[in-house]
Amino acid sequence: MLGIFVLAPILIGTIAYIIRDTWAKPLLFLFQFSYVAFAFSQFLSVKANGPIIWNTGGYTDGLALSLFADSLSIFMVLMTSFIYLAFLIFAVNADYFHSKFYFMFLVLEGLIMGLFLSSDLFNIFVFSEVSTVVVSILIMLNKEKQAIYDGMIYFFVNVIGSSFLLFGAGMIYRTFGLLDIRAVSAAMPMLEEPQAMILPYAMMIVTVSNKTAVMPLFSWLPKAHGTPSAPPVISAVLSGLYIKSGVYLFIRFNQMFAPVIDMQSFFFWVGFFTSVMGVIMALGQRDIKLFLAYSTVSQVGLIVVGLSMGSNVAYWGAVYHIFNHALFKSTLFLTSGLIEKEYKTRNIHEIRGLFRRMPWVGAATAFAVLGITGAPFFNGSISKYMIANGTKDAGITLLLNIINLGTILSYVKYSAMLFGKSREEQPGKPERIAAATAFVLGVISLFTGLFGEFLTEFFFGIELQVDTAEYIKKSLVYVFMLVAGVAFYKGLLKRDRILERIGTTELTFNGIITVMTGYFITILVFLSSVL
Amino acid sequence: MNFIFGEVAGILIFFIGLCGLMIKKSIVKTIMALTVMESGIILFYITINYTPDTIPPIGQAQEAAFADPVPAALMITAIVIGIGITAIGLTMFMHYKQEHGITHWTRDRNQQGSERKC
Q: Which sequence ranges are marked TM in the entry (chain B) (predicted)?
């Protein structure tokens, strides 16, 4: 049954590509609604009866190519299908919503589902290669010069990254004679020499680190996610959903190697530096899309930190942050597209007075900004509370606070757009459906925060007791940090030359590959000193 | 002991390809280096778990042990994907070169095509 998740979007996309536009739109929406309903029913079934396994060809489990849904992967599927529905509604009246676009868009949905559900290493490789192709075509949809350059960088870097995964899978097969993640995981403790796993682990983790865009490997991400001419929906799907497949594989691979290899302390620091670096780069940007892309880097860093803290609460907090980040980053990218269309610029310093000129879009942006900075009652505060609850160590708490201060600092810069007075210009054509979709996504950021305790229990079965006194304390810290952020930004960082120079530095293609090799060697050296 | 066998050669070819990606600025050479990397992986796969005196698993005859067919099956898929990747890479490059006349990776945003709007 799980095969439907992968196959159905691709089939429907193909049919919609062939038939006329007037029929394709109702078909797409009908399909996506039923798809969300199906995902929800499967989610409930996993919740009630435990994991679902779907083996192709009736072979025994472990040998067959299989799709596997446990509580984590079916949650990712549900999240993806739901946000895809919002994206389709957002894009329905846009000028780029033609057959080529929605064919690629739906194929990408099927491939993301494949990455979430697949339990076979080779299938994961195939899905990641094909989705790389689809994503790069989507980036280049407008065939602008810069978009093609960015798409090429994205394409080659990720193809090279994926070939590491193929090599790693070959080494796993050589050792175990298995390719299924669950079977390999079960066989892992029987391994006599843990050293044999150093090379495959390093290979596979380079791929997922590249896909997740952690510290030294994030250079491709702002190019791909912040491509100026790419439609906002594509940037949103890349930043909101597609990057999560990398994080998901990061979780899965680390679980697979857990019996012999423990890299949590390493990835804690990698995540921390990713987060800090993302904020510093984001502060140096003028282009709102590039700003949001670098902010994605920093949030992914926070997720990696949460996953690597070695505590159950922090782990599920990070998973909840994946969902929350998908919500508010999608909202921000969608609204940024509307803002760009209205103001005809992407310069963060020229856009002012959003509340007055585009009230609904302004409100959606405000909700999303409050969510991402972790304001009280918003969803970000719940997931950050869970991550912070995973530790009692004062030093780690301090590091988490530094990350959060950085996020607030960068979004003080971003939310300056909301206020002030806009230049007098003819207001553009209002896009009601698109603005309403963005607004609804923004409001969901509030509701997933208000009902955070219920939702974490419902989605993950984690009983989260939000301690009121501690939550209020955290809220006070938030307000304090907000004030500090505003003061710090206004006083020091506004139009800071050094930050802007840092923000515009970038690696060439050869630099990116060299850094990737360096990262690979670092992991090899680190592992051989540990094991 | 003989150190020159498929697996070692596969690993070496993979890293030679990677080296080419690190030092060559030309986009065509990038695509070639990518193909070199892929052939290294293919060589590695088809030589793992290989023992002499095995026969292909075709038919019902059982005179000798069957060779492991899985790596070969995987590599057929990987070769097909590799061809697709090379073709798409070349298509992108050709379009970019014909439209804008650029053959090398560059750091210059202007040359890449940014409009300096902001």
A: 6-23, 30-50, 70-93
State whether A152 and B27 contact (CB < 8 Å): yes
Range of the domain at B101: 6-51+65-105
CATH number assigned to the domain comprising residue B35: 1.10.287.3510
Residue B81 lies in a domain: yes
Contacts of A177 in chain B (CB under 8 A): 49, 68
Answer yes or no: are the C-beta atoms of A239 and A213 closer than 8 Å: no
Q: Which two tokens stand for residue B91?
A: 């298509």
Taking residue A173's Cβ as centre, other Cβ atoms within 10 Å add up to 22
Please give the residue of chain B at the shortest CA–CA distance from A169: B45
- Whether the predicted pLDDT of B59 surpasses 80: no
Task: List pLDDT tens digits, range A152-170.
Answer: 999 999 999 999 999 999 9
pLDDT of residue B42: 93
Whole-number Cα distances in Å, A516 to A157, A187, A243, A245, B1: 9, 30, 18, 19, 33
- pLDDT for A134 equals 93
Residue B38 located in a structural domain: yes
Contact: B118, A287; criterion CB under 8 Å: yes
Query: ∠ CA A335-A336-A339 to the nearest 5 degrees?
Result: 85
Q: Does B117 touch chain A (CB under 8 A)?
A: yes
Structural domain including A333 reads 3-231+238-530
Q: How far is A204 from chain B (nearest CA, A)?
A: 14
* Residue B116: predicted pLDDT: 47
pLDDT at B3: 66
Q: Using a CB-CB distance cutoff of 8 angstroms, which residues of chain B are in contact with residue A173? A: 45, 48-49, 70-71
User: From the CA of B3, how many Å to the nearest CA of chain A?
Assistant: 18
Q: Look at residue A77 in the predicted model and tell me its pLDDT.
A: 93
Distance in angstroms (rounded) separating the CA atoms of residues B11 and B7: 6
Instruction: Count other Cβ atoms within 10 Å, centred on residue A49.
Output: 8
Q: Is B24 on the interface with A (CB under 8 A)?
A: yes
Whether residue B111 is contained in a domain is answered as: no
When mean pLDDT is compared over A33-37, B93-97, B112-116, the highest value belongs to: A33-37
**Per-residue pLDDT at B118:** 41
**Residue among A152, A173, A347 whose CB faces B118 most closely:** A347
| A174–B92 C-beta distance less than 8 A | no
Q: At what angle do helices A432-450 and A359-373 cross, to 10 degrees?
A: 30
CA distance linking residue A370 with residue A381, whole number of Å: 9
Test B81 with A287 for CB contact under 8 angstroms. no
DSSP string across B5-42: SHHHHHHHHHHHHHHHHHH--BHHHHHHHHHHHHHHHH
Q: Which residue ranges in chain A fall short of pLDDT 70?
A: 424-425, 493-496
Q: What is the mean pLDDT of residues B61-87?
A: 86
pLDDT of residue A34: 95
Q: How many domains does chain A have?
A: 1
Structurally, chain B folds into a number of domains equal to: 1
Asked if B45 contacts B13 with a C-beta cutoff of 8 angstroms, the reply is: no
Does B21 reside within a domain? yes
Are the beta carbons of A274 and A406 closer than 8 angstroms?
no
Residue B99 to residue B91: CA distance in whole angstroms: 12
Residue A28: its pLDDT value, please?
92
ipTM: 0.91
H or E element that contains A67 = strand A66-69
